[in-house]
Write a structure and sequence with these properties.
By secondary structure, the protein is an all-alpha fold. It has a domain at 25-64. Helices cover 73% and strands 0% of the residues. The termini are far apart.
């Protein structure tokens, strides 16, 4: 706990860079989101996963 307090103080004073990106999500939300995606993929048929992947690829190429 004291180590974290010292690190926060160093970041605040500019001695140490805060290199962690902030995407606005809590750690719990990230963990639950990754579990949900894995569970969804496990329940999907290979054909449905391929269909989704093709649609995503088309969308990426369309943007260029």
């Amino acid at each position: 706990m004291i180590g974290n307090a010292v690190r926060v103080m160093r970041i605040a004073t500019g001695e140490e860079a805060d290199d962690t990106p902030d995407d606005g999500k809590s750690a719990a939300a990230k963990e639950l989101g990754s579990k949900g995606g894995k569970k969804r993929a496990a329940n999907m048929s290979p054909e449905r996963r391929a269909e989704i992947a093709k649609k995503a690829a088309e969308s990426r190429w369309k943007k260029s």
